[in-house]
Design goal:
CATH class of the largest domain: Alpha Beta
Shape: globular
Helix content: 25-40%
Radius of gyration: 19 Å
Number of domains: 2
């Protein structure tokens, strides 16, 4: 026996957010706004005859730092108790994006597992139930708070109610023309170091609280990027080197800000042209997660 399934998950850049703590992980998460990208993570999961072995790779290579995918498998085991004694599971994630740079790759890995493995094991889940597995995985690894639901739906997403996709609520901004996302990454940031730091959390929440209402009162991408920049400056998360990039982007695009949470500058533009070299240039994704193999 051998069966396989492949899924694409768009990357996601958060512009601003507010953290909502809760002892129940289904209710914990964030509100805020961000954009999904046409670049992302492609996950192929293969289940074949074997002896309960799980092999997880990124771009074909085993990566000890990728604890998120293994944790997603563990949550599926804990929740649904599938009999894996006679199968081997191979999960490979393909991505050209930098990891820990504000593109939501950890959510992409978790969603890649939660949307393929249960189906291959004969576990029937709804769209939001599969998303909940990824949400719980992200929280248990402290790798993100709101990327999961945004990547599931695609677009310019407003996260109006925090928590698992089963109970969260979103809205979208609908640009009337093609919008390019231009980004450049300088280095990585460990999300855990920020979202588990009480001082940082207080700074984030005190500055992010009103921004969502401000965006809802004027839901356009120009307002989104302006509010994102306001958030990045007032939370003091932008370093001088990144700020230099933002100043250049501002002169050549609609506006720019810092990807939350990564040492990455991103800008929105109606054209793909920019003077900064070696940028990632993509478009806003409108489809969200999608299967790449007929099911």
């Amino acid at each position: 026996m051998i069966d396989r399934l492949k899924v694409f998950v768009p990357a996601h850049i958060t512009g601003f957010f507010e953290i909502f703590q809760n002892t129940d992980p289904v209710l914990k998460g964030s509100r805020g706004a961000g954009i999904a990208l046409d670049e992302g993570v492609v996950t192929e999961t293969v289940v074949e005859d074997g002896c309960d072995r799980v092999v997880i790779t990124i771009n074909g290579k085993e990566n000890a730092l990728n604890t998120i995918s293994r944790r997603a498998v563990e949550i599926i085991r804990e929740r649904y108790s599938p009999d894996l004694s006679n199968v081997d599971i191979h999960i490979n994630h393909e991505t050209s994006l930098p990891i820990s740079a504000g593109f939501g790759t950890s959510a992409g890995f978790a969603l890649g597992v939660s949307f393929t493995l249960p189906r291959l094991l004969g576990i029937n889940l709804s769209f939001n139930e599969a998303g909940e597995i990824a949400h719980l995985t992200e929280l248990s690894e402290s790798s993100g708070l709101g990327d999961v639901i945004s990547e599931m739906h695609g677009g310019c997403v407003l996260r109006l109610l925090e928590g698992s996709p089963v109970r969260a609520r979103i809205d979208k901004i609908l640009p009337d023309k093609t919008v390019y996302v231009i980004s450049k990454t300088l280095s990585s940031i460990n999300t855990r170091d920020v979202i588990e730091d009480p001082v940082q959390v207080n700074m984030i929440n005190s500055n992010g609280h009103e921004l969502l209402n401000m965006l809802r009162s004027n839901p356009c991408i120009e307002n989104f990027i302006a509010l994102s920049r306001k958030f990045s400056v007032e939370t003091k998360l932008v370093n001088p080197e990144l700020n230099e990039l933002l100043d250049i982007f501002d002169d050549e695009t609609i506006g720019s800000s810092m990807a939350m949470l990564g040492n990455t500058a991103f800008a929105l533009s109606y054209t793909p042209d920019v003077s900064i070299e070696d940028c990632l240039i993509t478009k806003i994704n409108r489809t969200g997660i999608k299967y790449l193999k007929k099911i």
